Amino acid sequence: MVTQSGKPVPDAARRSEKSRRAIYEAALALVAEAGYPKTTIEGIAARAGVGKQTIYRWWGSKADVLLEAFLDLSEQAAEAAGQVPYAIPDTGDLAADLKAVLRATVDELLDPRFEAPSRALAAEGLVNEQLAREFVAKLLEPQLQLYVDRLRSAQDAGDVRADVDPRIALELFVSPLAQRWLQHTGPISYEYTDTVVDYALHGLAPRS
Amino acid sequence: MVTQSGKPVPDAARRSEKSRRAIYEAALALVAEAGYPKTTIEGIAARAGVGKQTIYRWWGSKADVLLEAFLDLSEQAAEAAGQVPYAIPDTGDLAADLKAVLRATVDELLDPRFEAPSRALAAEGLVNEQLAREFVAKLLEPQLQLYVDRLRSAQDAGDVRADVDPRIALELFVSPLAQRWLQHTGPISYEYTDTVVDYALHGLAPRS
Amino acid sequence: MVTQSGKPVPDAARRSEKSRRAIYEAALALVAEAGYPKTTIEGIAARAGVGKQTIYRWWGSKADVLLEAFLDLSEQAAEAAGQVPYAIPDTGDLAADLKAVLRATVDELLDPRFEAPSRALAAEGLVNEQLAREFVAKLLEPQLQLYVDRLRSAQDAGDVRADVDPRIALELFVSPLAQRWLQHTGPISYEYTDTVVDYALHGLAPRS
Amino acid sequence: MVTQSGKPVPDAARRSEKSRRAIYEAALALVAEAGYPKTTIEGIAARAGVGKQTIYRWWGSKADVLLEAFLDLSEQAAEAAGQVPYAIPDTGDLAADLKAVLRATVDELLDPRFEAPSRALAAEGLVNEQLAREFVAKLLEPQLQLYVDRLRSAQDAGDVRADVDPRIALELFVSPLAQRWLQHTGPISYEYTDTVVDYALHGLAPRS
DNA sequence: CCCTAATCGAGACGGTACGTCCTGTCTTGTC
DNA sequence: GACAAGACAGGACGTACCGTCTCGATTAGGG
User: Fold this and answer.
1) Residues D43, D140: one domain?
2) Is residue A154 within a helix (H) or strand (E), and if so which, with residue range?
3) Does DNA-binding show up as a keyword for this record (chains A, B, C, D) (predicted)?
4) Rg, Å, chain D Cα set
5) In this structure, is residue A81 part of a structural domain?
6) What are phi and psi of C53, to 5 degrees?
C-alpha cells in the first residue's frame, strides 16, 4: 500500500521492538547530555546501533522521535508510580489538593530526566505547530483535564463559584508555573506555587 | 586590541550602519517567510547583500542577530506609536485598565510581523538559557514591571490587598495568555483575557 | 548441505525457472535503459517481480547476473540464426572470408540489444579480473578460436606463412576493431574492417 | 556568473593548490590500494584532509577526479623522464623503432603506479562516453599521433607503402597490445610485441 | 587631503549533518 | 525449502550550512 505522499507504508507488524527501544533511549540520553540542538539523527542512530533509515522509516524528524520517546518515558514513569489511572486527589480541601499536585509538578519540572526533553519539545512546538498540537493533545491536555475534573467537583461542593469556567480557571495556577519554567522569568518552588494557589482561589481584591 | 578570547575587537565606530539595517531586515523577513529553523546565516547574508563575516564579526549566532533585530523592531514600533515612555493607564478602575492592556497584547501577539520572530526567540530561549536571560531582561521584564507599578498603585488605592506580592500577582493574568499563545493550548481573544482578569481579581472561591 | 564458506548450498532442482528468466530480462532491460552503473540489484528484483534474496541466492553480484543473462541472450540469438555450431566460412578466399566475418561483427557491435550489456561486462572485466577470465573463457576465446582454425586452414592452403602464430595473427584484424569500439578511438565500418584485413594480410612494407 | 546549469562558477583564481594536489594523491593512492569501485569521494576527501564540497566544487564525479589526477601524473612522469616534447625515435630502422617504443609501452602497462588508474579510467570510459572522449582526446590520441608521424616519415623513406593510411596502420601493432591488456586475452611481453610488429610490417601472406 | 588600516562583499575552505539510495543479511509468511 | 516481500545495520551519495579564512575594493579618521 502507498499513501498519497508516494511513500510506501512500512509494515508495523514486522517492526523491530529492540530498535525502537534503543532509539528512545539514545534520543533521551543525547538530549540530556548534549542538548537538543546538538542531538542529531545520525547521533541517535549511531548510539542506538541502528541504521539511519530505520529512524526515517518510522519517524519524520528528530522532534517526532523525541516526542514518542518522551511519551513512552512518561508512560513508564506513571506506571512505575502506580499512577494509572491518575486523578488529582479529592480530600475535600481544594487548596490543599491543588498545592499538593503543583508541588509534584515542581518536582517533575526540576527532575533532570524530564527537563531536557520536555524543554526541547516545548521549544520545537513553539515553531512547529503540528508538533505542538500533538504534544498538547497527547500530554498536556489530558493533564489539564484532571484539573477540570477537580474544579467541577469543587463547584459541586460549593468551594468554587458555579459560574466559573474550569478550563480557564485552571490556568490561573497552572500557567504561572509553566511560564516561569519555560521562559526563566522567575524561580519555581513550593512556596511560590502555594502562593499562586492562594491568590487564585481568593483573588487579589480585598473581600468586601 | 585583542581580548583574552583571542578575538580582535572590531572598531564599532567604523561599522557600516547600512549593513546593520540590511541584516535586521533580512533576518526578520526570512524568519517571517521561511520560519526560524530554515533561516540561516548564509541566507541572511545573501539577502542583505552582505558578507558572512560581517555577521560573524558583530554577532555570535543567528539568535543574537534576531534578538537585536527584534529589539530594534520593537523600539521602532513603540516610537511610531508614541508610546515612549510607556505605562499602563491608571484610570482608577483596575479591572478596566488591565483588560485594556491585555487586549492590546492580544493584538500584538496576533500581529504577523511580531509573531514569527517572537516565537522564534521564545523557542531559542527555551533551550539557550543565556539568550533567554537577555530576552527576559531586555524585553519581558520591563513590560512586567509596568504591571508591578500598576498593582502597587492599586494597593495604595485599596483595590488590591496589601499583603499581595505584585510580582507574583501579575502572573495570574499575564501567564495564562502567554501559555495559550506559546503552547497552543487554547484560542486567545478579548473575551478570554477579560475573563481571566475577572477571575484573578476576585478569585474562584465564592465570597463568604 | 553446507560448504566450508558456511553458506548453505541451494537446491538447484527446486529453482524457479520463471524467476530466472524474469531476472535475465530485467537485468538486460535495465542496463539498456538506465546504463550499467544505475542498474541495481534492487532494481532488477523489483522489475523482475522477485525478492532480492532470490538473486543473492544464485548469483554473487550484479556483474554475475548480467554475465549469465548475456550468455543466455547470445545463445538464444545464435540459435535463432541457426549458427550452432558456428565456424568462419572457408571459401578458399581468406581475405573475403575474414572481411565477411568482421562485417558481421561490426553489425553486432552496433546492435543496441548487444551493445549495452557487452560494454558493461567489458567495463566490469577491466577492474574485476575474475569476471574478465570468465567472460573471456566463455565468450571471447571460443570466438577467437574460430579465427585460429580458419588461419590454420589458410596455412595448409599456403595462403598464410607457415611460421606465423595464428593466435597472434588473428589479433591483427580483430584487435583494431575491438579497440575502436571499446575506447571510442575511431568510427567502425565495413570499409574500415576491409582495410584492416588487407593491411594485415599483406603488411605495411612494400613488396621487395 | 552562473551557467545554464544554474551552478555558480567557482573562482579558479582562489583555488587552493594544496588541496588539489592532496586530492590527486589521495585519489591515485586509493585506486591503487583499494581498487576503483571501493574508492569513494568521501574516502578521497578524508584521505586528502579536505571537505567533500571542495571536490564537488571542482569536479563532477570520481571519474573526473581520477582523470585529472592521472593526466597530472602522466605529465609529471613525462617531465621527469625528460620526454617533453616527445616523439618516436627515427633511426631509419622502422621495425626497431616501433619495437623499442612498444617495449616501453609494455613496461608502462605493467607499472603498478599506472596500471590501476588507467584500468579504472578505461573501464569508466566504456560506459561513460563523455569521459572516454576526454580520455582519448587528452591522452590516447596524442600518443597515437606520434605513430602517425613516424609512419609518415617511413613512407617518405620508402619503408611503408605510400597508399597506406597511417592512422589505420598504427592500430595493427598498437591495438593487439591494448586488447590483451584491457581484456586479459593473453600475456604481454617484449617477445609478443616484437612479433606483432614483424607480422604487421610484412603481413601474413607469403611473399609472391 | 591624502594615507593607511579596518571593514566590507565575496566566497573557498575543512567540517558536520542532512535525507536518500543501495548493499547484503535476516525474518516472516505463502506456496 | 524456495519464494515474494521487506525490515534491518551499514555506508556512500550529493547538498546545505557552519564558522574560519583569505582575497581585493571601499571607506573612513588621524596625520
Assistant:
1) no
2) helix A141-156
3) yes
4) 20
5) no
6) -60, -30
Helix (H) or strand (E) holding D133: helix D129-135
Looking at the structure, do residues D92 and D191 belong to the same domain, yes or no? Answer: yes
Residue D22 near residue D50, CB atoms below 8 Å: yes
- What Cα–Cα distance (Å) separates residue A21 from each residue in A26, A34, A49, B169, D73? 9, 20, 11, 44, 53
Grid coordinates standing for C181?
A: 569500439
Query: How many CB atoms sit inside 10 A of residue C60's CB?
Result: 11
Put simply, the answer to whether D205 touches C202 (Cβ < 8 Å) is yes
The total number of structural domains in chain B stands at 2
Give yes or no: residues A175 and A94 share one domain: yes
| Inter-residue contact A49 to A7 (CB < 8 Å) | no
Nearest Cα neighbor of D196 from D183, D181, D207 is D181
Model confidence at B98, pLDDT cuts 50, 70, 90, reads: very high
CA angle C62, C66, C72 (to 5 degrees): 150
Could you check: is the Cβ of residue C41 within 7 Å of any atom of nucleic acid strand E? yes
Coil, strand, or helix at residue D135? helix
- A176 in contact with chain B, both atoms CB, cutoff 8 A: yes
Judgement on whether residues C122 and C191 belong to the same structural domain of the protein: yes
The neighbouring-strand residues paired with A2 are: A8
Q: Please provide residue A188's backbone torsions phi and psi, each rounded to the nearest 5 degrees.
A: -120, 135
Residue B76 lies in a domain: no
Contact A204, B169 (CB under 8 A): yes
Domain span at residue A160 reads 87-202
In a domain, B78, yes or no: no
Element of type H or E holding B80? helix B62-80
Nearest CB neighbour to C126, from listed D119, D159, D168:
D119
Each residue's pLDDT tens digit, C17-55 = 999 999 999 999 999 999 999 999 999 999 999 999 999
Q: Which of D82, D111, D126 is the last residue of a domain?
A: D82
**Cβ pair C204, D197 in contact under 8 A:** no
- Is the distance between the Cβ of D130 and the closest atom of strand E smaller than 7 Å? no
568521501: which residue's cell?
D42
At D50-100, the pLDDT tens digits run 999 999 999 999 999 999 999 999 998 888 876 656 788 999 999 999 999
Positive or negative: CA dihedral B74, B76, B81, B84 = positive
CA distance B78 to B84: 6
Residues B120 and B190 in one domain: yes
Last residue of a domain, one of D18, D49, D82: D82
C190 touches strand E (CB under 7 A): no
Residue B67 and residue B73: Cα distance in Å, rounded? Answer: 10
Those of residues 59-118 in C touching chain D at CB distance below 8 A are none
